[in-house]
From TrEMBL:
Assigned keywords, A-Z: Disulfide bond, Membrane, Oxidoreductase, Quinone, Redox-active center, Transmembrane, Transmembrane helix
Domain Vitamin K epoxide reductase: 33-179
Cellular component aspect of the GO annotation: membrane
UniProt keyword annotation of Nucleotide-binding present: no
SMART domains: VKc
Record organism: Bifidobacterium avesanii
InterPro entries xref list: VKOR, VKOR_Actinobacteria, VKOR_sf
Subcellular location as annotated: Membrane
Family membership: Belongs to the VKOR family.
UniProt keyword Kinase present: no
Lineage: Bacteria, Bacillati, Actinomycetota, Actinomycetes, Bifidobacteriales
Transmembrane intervals: 35-56, 101-120, 127-147, 153-175, 209-229
Protein name as annotated: Vitamin K epoxide reductase domain-containing protein
């Protein structure tokens, strides 16, 4: 009886996911939970790996003060310069400061877990899906603040930090897609119509692909306009 109940529950969760997509008018593999959450899982895994690397570099600097990190290329592409700035440790309690990368490990672990839950097509409460999207937005805003500080205040680029920024961007793109196409948010859900018509059209006609591509191009262009002469 226990196994039968588990199987019925799994089938019900999958059916709910399929019904939400159908109600949104977003059908096909690109709008399903498998694709959207798979992209999110890959991006979140990359971000998690980069957070581990940045944490390891922080420990390396603590153990060997004065030594340069391996990813230092020149005066602009310098992980050491970025890591030694106050922006790399903005959380402080008295005399104690905590590297941003430590919080990155915690946050990205959550997003990896959410992506796995989505891939498993487990139905989650609407408040949980909404809070997850807001958490993704907060992570993106934080990553872009650090990116702006690195570009225009510190005047140095950390390759690992850039990788984290780009992976967080793709993570948010996939999470937003899944929130609308799979979770049917934002919307009341009472009438079964899911997300607003404008958002459904945005994803159904593929406008998101053009916006996402332009988004990445703009980020790359900002880097090249500021430091292209040094990078090449």
């Amino acid at each position: 009886m226990g196994r039968s109940t588990d199987a019925d529950t799994a089938m019900t969760d999958t059916a709910r996911s399929d019904e939400t997509g159908a109600a949104n008018g977003l059908t096909g593999w690109r709008h399903g939970s498998t694709w959207t959450y798979l992209v999110m899982l890959i991006a979140s895994t990359v971000a998690l790996f980069v957070s581990f690397v940045l944490s390891a570099e922080t420990l390396q600097m603590a153990r060997h003060p004065g030594e340069k990190l391996a990813c230092d290329v020149n005066g602009v592409v310098s992980c050491t310069t970025v890591a030694q700035s106050w922006q790399s440790e903005i959380i402080r309690f008295g005399d104690l400061s905590f590297p941003n990368a430590f919080f990155g490990i915690a946050a990205e672990s959550v997003f990896v877990t959410v992506a796995v839950i989505g891939l498993a097509k487990v139905a989650v409460p609407r408040w949980f899906a909404a809070c997850t999207w807001l958490g993704g937005l907060a992570a993106l805003a934080y990553a872009y603040w650090l990116f702006s500080q690195s570009m225009y205040v510190i005047h140095a680029l950390c390759p690992w930090c850039l990788a984290l920024m780009f992976s967080t961007t793709v993570q948010f793109m996939a999470l937003s897609h899944a929130t609308v196409a799979v979770q049917g948010l934002p919307g009341s859900g009472a009438a079964g119509d899911g997300a607003p018509a404008g958002l459904r059209k945005y994803y159904r006609l593929g406008f998101d692909l053009m916006v996402d591509a332009l988004w990445i191009v703009v980020l790359v262009a900002l880097i090249l306009l500021q430091y292209g002469a040094v990078l090449f």
